[in-house]
Amino acid sequence: MYSDNIDVAVYHNLIDTVHKNLDKMYDYVHFRKEFLGLDELHMYDVYVDLCEEKPKDIPFEEGKKIVFEALKPLGDEYLSDLEKAFSEHWIDIYPNDGKKSGAYSWGTYDSVPYVLLNYNNTIDSVSTMAHELGHSMHSYYSKSQDYLYHNYPIFLAEIASTVNEILLNDYLCKHAKTKDEKRLYLNEFLDKIKGTLYRQTMFAEFEMLIHDKYEKGIPLTEEEISSTYYNLNKLYFGDEMVSDDLIRFEWMRIPHFYTPFYVYKYATGISAAISFASDILNNSPGAKEKYLKFLHSGSSDYPLNILASSGVDMTKREPIEKALDMFSTKLKELKELV
Ligand SMILES: [Zn+2]
Question: How close is the Cα of 148 to the center of ligand 1, in Å?
Fold first, then answer.
């Protein structure tokens, strides 16, 4: 964490705050078990979709319209700059022979921030468009910095893309045409928090415990590591989740553990993003301006200082709690809906 100048307290604060809010996760586990009508809920059951049919056949122009409507809370200046992505042809839209799969945003100080998409008329590809355009707008605005400071670090990189995704999700929830569709969007949000905030914090805690054992001279046998993982999985998902014995080996297939102390950035990133997004959606005074200031900051200061000066203090519980509060609000909404 040294290279980003992140205080270790940020790491502990993340784990402590998530621990204090595990009841919300248990609540979600309980809901899924009831909704799916299962006597036992296993780890693999948390990936089942809760809707019958996903919306499809959304042509690119319509997808673009949805993204613009969803990002309206970011203001006219943002939207007119976003229009450049289309009028200046930043985006390679459709799948093509020999074209790389997936999606990303890429550019240099001297180029526009290009976007690679593989748009296929699904609602997921609309969401991917919003995500990648979030990166590109962050890059576009960060060029207001000198060359040396225009490139933002990983700690900040997923914030702008996630803010766009959250705004899109909120818009889709509010404009869903059927209950089934609304169920899809609400659950998508919950799933995102489960996977990015709860689970990545669990991974972060796992790394911390393992490194701690090493420092104390405890031999890191497979048994030691697997038991640590198993106990954490039980803690994070609660008693209503059947923790099958095989889950103890899951740590072996997580490639991120080969880059120590990386995964916590997913959890802090989504917390900061939801903190920005919920202030913007609630029309808090100055919220939009603070967020635009963040987008213009590049790497002009250490990441924690950039966030703090835009109103998000990652040494405090508040941003993480805001994200977890949104989790329980949306869960409540979903429960009422079904
Ligand atoms: Zn991204």
Answer: 22
